[in-house]
Amino acid sequence: MHTVQVETPGGHYPIHIGAGRLDAVAHSIPADATAIAVVTNTTVGALYGARLRAALEATGKPLLTIELPDGEQYKTWESLDRIFDALLEAALDRKAVLVALGGGVVGDVCGFAAACYMRGIRFVQVPTTLLAQVDSSVGGKTAINHPRGKNMIGAFYQPQAVEIDPGVLATLPAREISAGLAEVVKYGMIADPAFFDWCEAHVDALRALDGEAIRHAVRRSCELKAWVVSQDERESGLRAILNFGHTFAHAIESGLGYGQWLHGEAVGCGMVMAAELSARVCGLEAGAVERIRALVQAIGCPTLPPGLGAGRWLDLMRVDKKNEGRHIRYVLLPALGRAEVRAVDDEIVRPLLPDVPQA
Amino acid sequence: MHTVQVETPGGHYPIHIGAGRLDAVAHSIPADATAIAVVTNTTVGALYGARLRAALEATGKPLLTIELPDGEQYKTWESLDRIFDALLEAALDRKAVLVALGGGVVGDVCGFAAACYMRGIRFVQVPTTLLAQVDSSVGGKTAINHPRGKNMIGAFYQPQAVEIDPGVLATLPAREISAGLAEVVKYGMIADPAFFDWCEAHVDALRALDGEAIRHAVRRSCELKAWVVSQDERESGLRAILNFGHTFAHAIESGLGYGQWLHGEAVGCGMVMAAELSARVCGLEAGAVERIRALVQAIGCPTLPPGLGAGRWLDLMRVDKKNEGRHIRYVLLPALGRAEVRAVDDEIVRPLLPDVPQA
């Protein structure tokens, strides 16, 4: 097992990475917990719910399971309220602990429920998708979507621990592996050129879920994320670089309707767009843009943006949380492995935004 | 003007108390704010909205007003979502600032909206009821109600500043003054016997809104609350004593339906019940119980609990946030001016809980 430590003002906690961690989650339940509620979705619950419950029964504490429907379109107030309802019906108190068993949606909704229930109870992340293992389960960002924008309602709220078992990725559809790899290669692009090189050299092993390659990718991703988050928990500066590609990605997801493209797929495409924009406004070399495009393609993510029409693209990007005033701010790369945030005039971005396809 | 400072891990901020503070709120808006959204209700908005907006126009910042319906029954997700909708429609960013102009409901809903919008933006409290001025605007508790329990969903989230203008109390109905005085006298009961004596001696002046008496009551209440909150922001210990009378009060509000009794009225009655329970389990003298009953009556709050039936009373109190496991925990007074939290067996409490009235 490998441990990465996260140190933020909102909490210090370990990320445990290793085969079999799913069976060891009981170690992360605080001794004074009065009850445990596992929050999962119907898909993951069917695959790993019984195994996790068996592991948690070792604590001897009352155990409740709450299953949400599966999909980004359920990252809503309704799902949140379903959790609150179940917790209140079971009369769980402030010393109850939630366990998020699932991907980014489950982790975000369960984490936000923990942040709000009785003004805050403890929770543990048990991410089961590659995307959640390398990104969303680490760093304490929790949220639900609003019809007007993704992740608009949420909290910075740190878990007690993150338990990562790469073994559970075996049941993940190939498309979700590709989506998760988008966030993995992102860390190389924004902060670690050597890791970018390594990803280029190990694409096939990663897509085939080779154990050693996946463990290294998860570990390095968690280290880089923990390093960024420990310096800037509440995204007042550095942390924004983790949103490389995300301004475009959020517009894709919101513009096509949540759940059409996977979040990681939209991020893959968004990173290609952001690389092209970087070439235009801060000097990213053409060769680097092509390497980014080739790697996104190699991991199996789309590289061609959908036609939403430039006006709609810009409107959708304008509700991004990074913005200040009316200017859209983008994470850009002056070079591979180095990121910065800057506002870019709409007219410079417009040529990158495809029109609505003609019927 | 008098200033009381609140120092918590979640934020340091001033409470300004003084005539005319409503016209000085612009001083509490941070210079880098990109926009201001005033959240109020239809009643308070009609009385003081224009005056506050005029004062805020001095900042030169874009100004938005969001009016909620008036009443505890609107302390819901729907009101919260109405705020999110308005903020997103106006494309307000993370550097926007909310201003809560109203009583406890507006302050709690607006504060919780600030805690969640884009994972947290800044806000300023401008309380306009006595209850909000002496209690709910100070200390960072924000929440909405859930059909299964009061204030069950929320956050600890501190404002940038609290601006208290006792002048606005002039338009408050007498019933709301009485409700606010319940929280004022509470501070004497739990922490300051001399202040309890002072309240007994100044009941008539307080109910008549005598300027000097009200200023002293607001100031001493804020000082005592700031002292408690600064030691225990997240209610892991000491802060629970502020809930004296509230276990019973929440059951009254929830059992009769939110909005039937005012929160402060329920607290008044709940303090009499808690005093009686204190006499039975921790030796509060009969004379002190009678002084508490007499003072609650003198400020104009009910002292006789409604008949909900003992079983229902206990069920309603069991969802209280102070509880751990299945035991109901009460704030009790071993003596006037001293409070402690302890679990009490249902059978000891039952005789205090009136039956359902016979038809």
- Give the topology string of chain A: H per helix, E per strand: EEEHEHEHEHEEEHHHHHHHHEEH
The major beta sheet of chain A can be summarized as: 7 strands, mixed
Widest sheet: strand ordering of chain A: 1-2-9-6-5-3-4
Structural class by sheet pairing and helices of chain A: alpha/beta
How many structural domains in the coordinates of chain A?
A: 2
Using only CA atoms, what is the Rg of chain A?
A: 20 Å
Helix content of chain A: 40-55%
In the predicted model, the low-confidence regions of chain A spanning at least 5 consecutive residues are none
Question: Which fold does the CATH topology of the largest domain in chain A refer to?
Answer: Dehydroquinate synthase-like, alpha domain
Function (chains A, B): Catalyzes the conversion of 3-deoxy-D-arabino-heptulosonate 7-phosphate (DAHP) to dehydroquinate (DHQ).
Pathway (chains A, B): Metabolic intermediate biosynthesis; chorismate biosynthesis; chorismate from D-erythrose 4-phosphate and phosphoenolpyruvate: step 2/7
InterPro entries (chains A, B): Dehydroquinate_synthase, DHQ_synth_AroB, DHQ_synth_fam, DHQS/DOIS_N, DHQS_C
Enzyme class (chains A, B): lyase
What does this structure look like?
2 copies of one chain form a homodimer. With 359 residues, chain A is an alpha/beta fold. Chain A contains 13 helices and 11 strands. In chain A, the strands form 3 sheets. Chain A has a 7-stranded mixed β-sheet with strand order 1-2-9-6-5-3-4, with helices on both faces. In chain A, strand 1 (2-8) and strand 2 (11-17) form a beta hairpin. The longest helix of chain A is centred in the middle third of the chain and has 21 residues, at 211-231. Chain A is globular. The interface between A and B is large, with 38 and 38 residues. Chains A, B: Zn(2+) binds at residues 183, 246, 263. Chains A, B: One of its GO terms (molecular function) is 3-dehydroquinate synthase activity. Chains A, B: NAD(+) binds at residues 70-75, 104-108, 128-129, 141, 150. Chains A, B: Its main location: cytoplasm.
